[in-house]
Here is the input.
Amino acid sequence: MRKKRKPSLWLTVGAAVLLIGGGTVAYWLWVQRKASLGNVPLGAQLVPQDALVAASITTDPKQWEQLREYGTSDTQAVLDQQLATLRDNFLTVNGYDYQKDIQPWVGKEIMLAYLSSEVPVSPPNAKTPTSVAPVTQLAMVMLLPIENPVQAQQLLDKPDSQKTRFIERTYKGVQIRERQGGTSQISTTVIDRFLVVSTDPKATDRIIDTYKGDASLAATPGYLQALGQIQVSQPFAQMYVNVPTAAAVAASNSARSLSPQNLAQVQQKQGIAATVTLEGDGIRFKGVSWLKPNSQKQLVVENKAKSMPNRLPGETLLMVSGGNLQQLWQDYREGAESNPVTPIKPEDLRARIKFFSGLDLDQDLLPWMKGEFSLALIPAPKGTPSELGAGIVLMIQASDRPRAEKSLNQLDEYVAKQYQFQAQKAQIEGQPVVNLTSPLGGLTATHGWLDNNVAFLTVGAPITNLMLPQPKSALIDNELFKKAVSTELSPNNGHFFMDVDHTINAGNLTLSPLTPQSPQQNTFFKLLTGVRGVGVTAAVHDERSSRFDLFVVMKKVGQPNPTPTPPTKSP
Here is the structure.
């Protein structure tokens, strides 16, 4: 039922123009008021402050056409089919056309928001109500600014050929119309130059409450300052995620509950905001996350990631780097404890490291891991047999080399005793290394040092000679890496890079976890074939905010095919 309660953009717009009767513009003229919003997206002053997600999206047809130019002919067909299905099911069936009926009066951007509400649930076939933890359902709200009231009035006065049944009610002096029956309950009204459409009457009431004085998204602490850090001209979209609300929704719908201490921890966070722009080579996200002004937690302002892209070979397929592995683990541990959907729990990771290496993460490893690090996937050299088709390398700038050497010696002794691996000293390109080889063949590992203080460990394909003493061509000079990874954030605290074409799309690596398991995942992977690569750069801005830039390098299909036309209705 939850999926049925989340109509698309086309459904809500179609329902809006279908249900609202004459007189709307007159009401609009009565309630309009001026608001100085600065750079805040239109509609943010009407969205409740505890909204889960809010997104302001452009209505500029040129930008939408540019979006359709990305990808391949196959991915374009998938995207067009999805949009055409939504249009036919929810707009065309009601006799409306977006370009003719809606585009002439709608403003430059629309606001979408998801509001959460707890719904009590009783066990199936229960004869008497029982106390069961409620689940959270989401209602979608759309705010469409009325830029041309005359043309909007012409549309709203259009006869209703569908004879839709609706009821009228008033809430705090605002007239509301609601469609009854079917799989959804659409609620519509006009507030302060906005046509408001929601999938839940209670959500409409909350929009009116906000209009009447309740806290809005625009008044969220730190929101204006955050948008100022990521301001761009003519964005395709601006997005906001309310972190405490998102954690609460995830917890209510998860088998894993959060303790009061963990709930208090997540409440110190405020939100994540991002602006989206369409560029010649792809889609850019400029983002910022921030803490509440009164939070006890403060970020460590440390941006020391500098050299790892220079140490990795140009053919590197995937890389994650950072400036301080010890600090990263501390942040991950704190975040995982207050995140009910964390993929790997900290205690599970500790146990796995202990099982496979015999080393205690907190006692044997982290004390000397305060420097820059990277974890990378490098393809196996041509002609080299490898089950995965690649090797994994971990590099860490040791803050205490003697302690690091002690840990590596412990690793050699453990794998020799536990797995009967042979630890043999060798040299590669004049550099001393230790090779760990299984007597049964298959898995191998190598560890050594770079520039006297950078420890490295490789597992899988023999890739050490690609890095020693230094790469013939470095990742930082890779053309795809240069396009994907932003240099604007400097200094920074690390990068993420993935060559999607040569990992997921190429299919020459054994990556079973990345095999689609459902129709939705299959559609996602089809769309992914239009992506060349992804790059992320992160930096700590100050004690309460951090920045990130994400760029998706897209393929270009060129001039897209015309959007499929709606089906012709039989007379």
Observations:
- Residues 240 and 481 are 28 Å apart (CA to CA).
- The chain has two domains: 3-122+131-264, 300-542.
- The chain has a mean pLDDT of 83.
